[in-house]
Amino acid sequence: MHCLTVNFPERHIRELVFWGLLLGAGLAYVGAQRNIQPRNNETADPELLVSLPLAAQVLMAVGDRNLAANLAGFRVLVADTLRMNASDFAVQGRLQHDIAWLNPVHEDNYYIAAALLPWNGQLEAAQFVLRHASETRTFDYQPVFYYAFNIYHFRRDPAAAAQLLLDAANRPIEQQDQWALQNLAARWLEQGYQTGTAATLVDAMAKNAPPGGFKKYLGLRAQRLRDLAHLQELALQYRATAGRDLGDLQELVAAGLIDAIPRDPIGFGYTVGPNGEPMLKTTAK
Fold first, then answer.
1. How confident is the model at residue 77 (pLDDT cuts 50, 70, 90)?
2. How far apart are CA 52 and CA 59, in angstroms?
3. Separation of alpha carbons 32 and 36, rounded Å
4. Which of 6, 111, 183, 245 is 20 to 30 A (C-alpha) from 137?
5. For residues 106 and 76, is the Cβ–Cβ distance under 8 A?
6. Whole-model pTM?
């Protein structure tokens, strides 16, 4: 009676041993994470219970960084975000951070990061993803926009956000998109700089814009900022002479500091803030 024997090449045996050890190491790591950091979270998605080290992710993807990024991205895509808590979003933040490191060009990753992470306590992870996408996707203005918006909204720094938009304004192919970015930057500049400086910057944008309606529009915004800066200077003079803060713009006329309140070329008008400083109205009459 003869026994059937199969001779595997030594190279195949080594590969089987390697992948067996790697799989065992991955399972051991997952088990250790669950034991070391127990979580009482019945609503957590299994896909987000653990984030592996970057080296392990690359090894499990046969050394392919793009494949590793796609595998991590799949875990993010299938997660039920409506049932996630703060701990789950922390894991998702690490996953998306890893994806940006493995493949910063990954489009789905930056969209998801912008839509979910900053609104769920993971601003730094979102900014890491968006910054890397902005640097590598030089043809795409959207990651720059989301990155700038987070600086404007969450970090309360409209000046820095506006500069980013101006830098990104040359990326779009469509001129309407370029104008939209410049327009938004102009609005943010109004909030982020001293009024006179903002007027100078917006005026420079107007001069560099191509002839047409948008160039005229930026010029009007620059003019309203110059008028506002003048009103603010007069309010300081009024405080020095009257000994109190300005309560109404017409007080400048009554004090003989100005003949008439300038008309806002945009149509919203000017008002006085609680600290006695003239400011732009945010809504039209």
1. low
2. 11
3. 6
4. 183
5. no
6. 0.63
